[in-house]
Amino acid sequence: MCDERDIHLFGDEVYRGLERDTRRTLPNAADLSPRALSLNVTSKSLGLPGLRVGWITCRDAALRSRLERAKHYTTICNAGPSEVLARIALKSRTIILERNRALIAANLPVFDAFFAWFPEHFDWQAPDGGCVAYPRHLGAEGVETFCTRLVEEAGVLLLPASIYHSDLTPTPVDRFRIGIGRAHPERGLDAFTSWMRDHR
Ligand SMILES: Cc1ncc(COP(=O)(O)O)c(C=O)c1O
Fold it and tell me: Which of 94, 99, 112, 137 is buried deepest, with most CB atoms within 10 A?
């Protein structure tokens, strides 16, 4: 559709490779169309946020050049050691993705069990892929107040819907982002559970 209408498609593919069922992995947008751009980073599927390396794949050389100039305008250069480490990670991509998919698969039952305790407060559905989930908050006080109180009173940080507001399209107003990709989520969930029991 984009090709027919001469529209560039920007594919944010940072969670690609973390599908629960790898048969459902979508192709890179940039592989499908010369007008498409595929964004990726080391911080999500590869689990290496500290490297601060990301990239855009695009077959349109003129557009790539404009993007490169914009990047150079805002940043002198990447950190060299980060680029070396990113190359090592990309070469070991298969092993790292397998490890991270296993971590999420082990975490999901822990999150399922947590949310099963509070069905009247949250609408939880395990995501089909990725290392974050976006459950619905059902409480009367609204998700913004809920997240503020939770971080201030229990030290548990969730990102409320307002963080993901867009002027371009309607976005949910009752959801929060929660990470499911780190080892040992129990500590955070225990603090969350205690707070819920004390306050709900
Ligand atoms: C969908 C999506 N795209 C891009 C990014 C940016 O990743 P980075 O932290 O590497 O800048 C994020 C980070 O949360 C994200 O969720």
Answer: 137
Query: Cβ-count burial of 191 within 10 angstroms (0-12 exposed, 13-18 middle, 19+ buried)?
Result: middle
Ligand 1 site-directed mutation target among 14, 51, 180, most atoms within 8 Å of CB: 14
CATH code of the region 2-91: 3.40.640.10
Q: Each residue's pLDDT tens digit in the chain (200 positions)?
A: 999 999 999 999 999 999 999 999 999 999 999 999 999 999 999 999 999 999 999 999 999 999 999 999 999 999 999 999 999 999 999 999 999 999 999 999 999 999 999 999 999 999 999 999 999 999 999 999 999 999 999 999 999 999 999 999 999 999 999 999 999 999 999 999 999 999 87
Pocket test for ligand 1, best of 43, 85, 163, 180 (most atoms within 8 A of CB): 43
What are the structural domain ranges in the chain? 2-91, 105-199
C-alpha span between 18 and 99 (Å, rounded): 10
Please tell me the pTM assigned to this model: 0.92
Q: Which fold has domain 105-199?
A: Aspartate Aminotransferase, domain 1 (3.90.1150)
